[in-house]
Amino acid sequence: MSRAVVTGAAHGIGAATVRALTRRGFEVLACDVEPVPAAHSGEGAVSRLTVDVAAEDAAGVIAQRVASRFGQLDLLVNNAGIGAEAHFGDLSRADWQRVMDVSLTAPFLLTQALWPYLRKPGGSVVNVSSVHGQRPLPGQVAYAAAKGGLENLTRAMALDAAPDGVRVNAVAPGFTRTQRWDDWLSREGERADWHRDEVARLIPWGAPAEPDDVATVIAWLGTPGGPPLTGAVVPVDGGLGVQAFARLEPEDVERITRREAPGV
Hints:
Distance between the termini: 33 Å
Strand order of the largest sheet: 3-2-1-4-5-6-7
Largest sheet: 7 strands, parallel
CATH class: Alpha Beta
Oligomer: single chain
Strand content: 5-15%
Number of helices: 8
CATH superfamily: NAD(P)-binding Rossmann-like Domain
Order of helices and strands: EHEEHEHEHEHHHEH
Shape: globular
Structural class: alpha/beta
Helix content: 40-55%
CATH architecture: 3-Layer(aba) Sandwich
């Protein structure tokens, strides 16, 4: 049986990834700062660990659990991440640091701590980035910087890991129908349909992704015996990131990037 660790596993893409992996026969350690609901973690072999990946001892705690429960590891999915929507002139140092700790430093420290268990032919790391890593929207300076750093961290770790037969890749989702997306539309009330249509208009594919869509790509990248693909950042954004110009009017930018708008 293959074994995996997934962070940010309580909701959204993380929960969908746990389900996708268990369907493929993985045993999964599902980690999140919130308790991971059993209903969100599939029907396979799943254990749960409540941990803040930005805590000083988090990497060691997760590594200890891997050592005691698995003994070895085939896949690490660094999915946990947060944003702090604000103009760069208004962003506090504390908010900047928290975004970096969760979204960039934690993936590095956790991959480092789990390297002794991953370091074998067929091992794999998948980092969850965002379209913001390459093409940010206004008000996303900390998130964009963290995700851009995560993508280059992916490339650099891929070079270091390749001699040991370990692949390191990333996925870059665009707008995705997570709980955050649903909460945003709920707050919009009678304007929810209009906002939903406006976001869909930006996406060449015509609709946001589902968490399961992103999870399918993560599972494909992380399955032992997969293709010799490493150092790649795979977009799952319906073509959002490849178009030369988004169909946006200035007032659209303000509406789409307000503090309560969904992140990508």
